[in-house]
Amino acid sequence: MSISEKWHGIDLTEDQLEMLNLVRDFCAKEVRPNGAKYHESQHTPASILKKAAQCDFYSSDFFLQLFSDPTGLTAALAIEEMFYSDAGIALALFGTGLPASAIVANGSPEQIEKWLPRCFGTAKHPKVAAFCCSEAEAGSDVSNIRTRAVYDEKSGTWTINGIKHWITNGGISDVYVVVASVDPSLKSRGQASFIVTDGTPGLSAGRHLDKHGFRASHTGEVIFDNVVVPGDQLLGGKERLDKRLARARRNESSGEQAAMATFEATRWMVAAMGVGIARAAFEYARDYALVREQFGKPIAAHQQVAELLADMATEIHLARLGVINAAQTYLSTGKLNRAQGSMVKYFASELAVKATRNAMQILGGAGYVNEHPVAQWHADALLLPIFEGTSQIQKNVIASVVTGLRIR
């Protein structure tokens, strides 16, 4: 079924319709029917990735086209549709979007032109990329990153040492965007992002992590043992980095931090993921409640169930509007306003957990067995309040903005 010109009450242009119909048609055919299989096997859906690349659904051109719409509608609704279909496979397809966003947010025009296509590979040989930020002692506390990058003035190269944890596509990527400390005394203000390519001596894969949800998306550790990278693989270049470090040492505003620039660009995308998962759970629970009868009538006609459905529909609608507003702000201005990203990420992430939990409750015992997908969707949803900044961190950011106080 194609997207109508007025989807969820939103008017769409012909270009937006064309893009979104491509997304919906591909996901309906390739993603939704295979969700349970890849969740169970925990294998990366390589065949689906290849099909996506062959129909130009997975490419740097598609990525740029998706995010070139300044209204935010194309990106927001496309991400929602992907994660509505199946979150695990969607993240396997969309996981490269995080390092790609890091390159766009931090890189020079020349670096974007060189490295963005390599993140995705070609239609014949698609590749994936990874954003390496989190560490064992640096999850929410990005300032505690221990991975070091040391510059050699003589050779003009950087040597990177450290271990990254919980990395989407970690160990299977062709391109890694690595956040490392170049001046530990400055904490998060002394960090920079580097490009490291597969096959570089000293780069290796650590453990593959067995996850509760998002199991079709590969997550692993990445090890950097005296990894030497050329100077032109420092995103943004050394001159820009030196100026930023100098301002930080003078205790002046040094601009966006390496990791935070990426998170700022992607938090609304995580929110769109949450809307997609929540909508899938709502529609499945609604359809079930209309045919399942108890006490002589559909359970949707019982007030307690009807209230759950009403709450889910209302909150999904509000979350979608918040995502679109944040997407429009970011894609038209390059930044978000007053904790906007944190607000929408927090609200939609928690909504995904709540909606999938309520869907399980509406299905009753049926919701707890794998014959129905809602328990899998709940497992997937539980990740959203954790990754790319926990809900608690988002609330700290929001509270800091609305009070003007430093919240810790």
Shape: globular
CATH architecture assignment of the largest domain: Up-down Bundle
- Please provide the count of β strands: 11
CATH class of the largest domain: Mainly Alpha
Alpha-beta content class = alpha+beta
The structural domain count equals 3
Uncertain stretches of 5 or more adjacent residues:
none
Read across the widest sheet, the strand sequence of neighbours is: 4-5-9-8
Ordered list of secondary-structure elements with their pairings:
Elements: E1 6-7, E2 10-11, H1 14-31, H2 35-41, H3 46-54, H4 60-66, H5 73-85, H6 87-94, H7 97-106, H8 109-120, E3 129-132, E4 148-152, E5 157-168, E6 175-181, E7 191-197, E8 203-208, E9 219-230, H9 238-249, H10 258-291, E10 293-294, E11 297-298, H11 303-333, H12 340-363, H13 374-381, H14 391-403
Structure description:
α5 packs across α11 (about 305-335), α7 runs antiparallel to α8 (about 110-120) and α12 (about 340-365) runs antiparallel to α13 (about 375-380). The protein is about 50% helix and about 15% strand. With about 400 residues, it is of the alpha+beta class. The strands form 4 sheets. The protein has a 4-stranded antiparallel β-sheet, with no helix packed on it. The protein has 3 domains: about 5-120, Acyl-CoA dehydrogenase/oxidase, N-terminal domain (Butyryl-Coa Dehydrogenase, subunit A, domain 1, Orthogonal Bundle), CATH 1.10.540.10; about 130-250, Butyryl-CoA Dehydrogenase, subunit A, domain 2; about 260-405, Butyryl-CoA Dehydrogenase, subunit A, domain 3 (Up-down Bundle), CATH 1.20.140. The protein has 14 helices and 11 strands.
